[in-house]
Design goal:
Layout (H helix, E strand, L loop, with lengths): L2 H4 L26 E5 L4 E6 L10 H11 L1 H4 L5 H4 E8 L5 E9 L2 E12 L5 E5 L20 H16 L4 E2 L4 E9 L2 E14 L3 E8 L5 E6 L2 E2 L17 E8 L5 E9 L2 E3 L1 E2 L6 E5 L9 E2 L1 E2 L3 E2 L5 H21 L11 E7 L6 E3 L4 E4 L13 H14 L8 H22 L6 E2 L14 E2 L20 H5 L4 H13 L1 E3 L2 E3 L4 H15 L6 H16 L4 H12 L4
Parallel strand pairs: 13-20, 17-21, 21-23
Antiparallel strand pairs: 1-2, 2-6, 3-4, 4-5, 5-6, 7-9, 8-9, 9-10, 10-11, 12-22, 13-14, 14-15, 15-19, 16-17, 17-18, 22-23, 24-25, 26-27
Length: 556
């Protein structure tokens, strides 16, 4: 398999051209900018002064706007019957932002989430995300469900066994929920069934089973690999009544680190209680088990060669927590202090690392392709950023949305590396990849083409491998982010760099407030422009640089 597919997890859906046509929504304000998803036929990003100032609640402002734009969004009846607010927050710029789930007769439409921003004057300034059109006209939605959730689980499981070659060893029982699944213009009642397992290979599969016919409508492995239950700690839980202390350790590459540890009954554990809900590091003992045993030591000096992977996983998880906390005021990946769990020494010669939806997992590598994968701070930060994405934009891990998912992890993996000052560069995984070969990496953000990845939308991968190019096409977003930060000329377009701090602020706001599960590259551009507008003003040089960066990679 080519390295670019092996690369850090570190679709090629159609590009949707922006259309600036206020009259399409019947809008009186010429400042209204509309980016249409031409494949679906509804807007995927609208920005401007979308409503007049109001003292109404933000929810009412959004629902009234949607009611006024029924023709554009292609639904019928009161907007409250087609959309449901699932989250409302106020940010430090004074905006109230809402996440809105599209529903049909109370059932959520998979991937159809919108975000809405209302400013302090009660003006709706942006609506991001694609709603599925004309659901009331879909004949398949007039049928009655025939399958039960249990039957849907069995249907998907039969196919899964054929896919992976044997019965899976589940981390938890398969979960099933009712959704409307829309694909290629067709809409069906379906069960979304999740299968999470470690053997015979790690998987986090989502299956979509037609609730009427039992057909499998779609499937995707949502495990975020480094290669192309939170809850009570596992074995060795020291319990309460111990003492927080500081130990030392030597990492994978031989460098010494200070470690926040926990002393209980004469044993020191890799448990850091100073950050959010805690940082926990476990030992899988070269087996396929999670989380394994909480790492324990007799003298608080973790300097054995076997300790190195745990030292780095523990230390770099703490540094990633600090970056998100200090720079973006985010308390752990979910914003609510979720424990950070890492397991090292997973499997034997396992050339991979992944976020499985609950925790980070690191293999030791085979010593030739990889050394212990937790030895790279950008790898650790990359995996933890997948967790941030899962709890915010929730980008579907397939096609363009999946490539954006991977790109966000590369972007913030690199920004964390720079923030820590740990030999930073714009390469991904360079510290743990091919130890006997110097000067190479999994991917390059400054020059994606160096490792065969596209650096322009016109040369994107459009096949089905790699979940539709999630690792491969991340090069497009990576190059844009590099140009935004560092500046340069690409495909004849010159970009003025704005530095890492502003680049991070823009992408963090875009990821957590504007991107939605089914985002395209075009929607990413609109989200980044709007985030920069919120932070620095519509006529700012930062907004100009964002636009130039995406022009340079061919995303309109």
């Amino acid at each position: 398999m080519k390295k670019k597919v092996v690369a850090l997890s570190l679709t090629a859906g159609l590009m949707m051209s922006p259309v600036f046509a206020p009259e399409a929504l019947g809008a009186p304000d010429l400042s209204e900018k509309i980016n249409f998803n031409e494949k679906v036929g509804t807007p995927q990003f609208i920005s401007g002064k979308l409503t007049s100032p109001s003292s109404n609640a933000p929810e009412k402002i959004v629902f009234d706007y949607l009611n006024a734009k029924q023709k554009a969004f292609k639904f019928t009846g009161d907007s409250k019957l087609s959309f449901k607010v699932i989250k409302t927050e106020k940010d430090d710029l004074g905006f109230t932002y809402l996440r809105v789930q599209q529903v049909y007769k109370g059932t959520p439409v998979y991937g159809a989430v919108l975000t809405a921003h209302v400013n302090k004057d009660g003006v709706l300034t942006a609506l991001s995300g694609t709603a599925m059109p004309n659901l009331d006209e879909k004949q398949a939605l007039k049928a009655t469900k025939k399958l039960t959730k249990k039957e849907a689980v069995a249907v998907g499981e039969k196919d899964l066994v054929g896919q992976i070659g044997s019965e899976p060893s589940y981390e938890y029982s398969p979960k099933s929920e009712s959704v409307i699944f829309v694909q290629n213009g067709e809409a069906n009642y379906a069960y979304l069934v999740n299968y999470n397992f470690l053997a015979p290979e790690p998987g986090n599969w989502n299956y979509f089973v037609d609730a009427v016919t039992g057909d499998i409508l779609g499937k995707v492995n949502e495990i975020h690999e480094a290669k192309g239950n939170a809850g009570k700690p596992g074995g060795g839980d020291p319990g309460s009544g111990g003492t927080d202390v500081v130990g030392t350790g030597i990492g994978v590459l031989g460098n010494s680190k200070s470690l926040n540890t926990y002393l209980y009954s004469s044993t020191y554990y890799l448990q850091d209680r100073t950050r959010g809900g805690g940082v926990f590091t476990y030992d899988a003992s070269n087996r396929q088990q999670l989380p394994g045993s909480l790492w324990a030591d007799a003298d608080n000096v973790f300097n054995a060669s076997y300790d190195g992977a745990a030292v780095d996983a523990h230390y770099y998880a703490g540094q990633t927590y600090d970056y998100y906390s200090d720079i973006h005021n985010r308390n752990s990946y979910d914003g609510n202090g979720a424990p950070l769990k890492s397991t090292v020494h997973y499997g034997r010669n396992y050339n991979n690392a992944f976020w499985n939806g609950q925790q980070m997992v690191y293999g030791d590598g085979d010593g030739t392709t990889f050394v212990e994968l937790s030895g790279g701070v950008d790898v650790v930060a990359h995996e933890l950023t997948h967790a941030v994405t899962d709890t915010t934009a929730d980008l579907i891990y397939q096609n363009e949305s999946g490539a954006i998912n991977e790109s966000m992890s590369d972007i913030f993996g690199t920004l964390v590396e720079y923030h820590t000052g740990n030999n930073p560069d714009w390469e991904i995984g360079e510290d743990i990849y091919t130890p006997n070969k110097s000067g190479d990496a999994l991917r390059s953000m400054s020059d994606p083409a160096k490792y065969g990845d596209p650096d322009h939308y016109s040369v994107r991968y459009t096949g089905t491998s790699d979940n539709g190019g999630v690792h491969i096409n991340s090069g497009i977003g990576n190059k844009a982010a590099y140009l935004l930060s560092q500046g340069g000329s690409h495909y004849g377009v010159s970009v003025s760099g704005i530095g890492n701090a502003k680049t991070g602020a823009i992408y963090y706001r875009a990821l957590t407030q504007y991107l939605t599960p089914s985002s395209t590259f075009s929607q990413l551009r609109s989200a980044a422009v709007q985030a920069a507008t919120d932070l620095y003003g519509a006529s700012s040089s930062e907004v100009a640089s964002v636009k130039a960066a995406y022009n340079a990679v061919g995303v309109n």
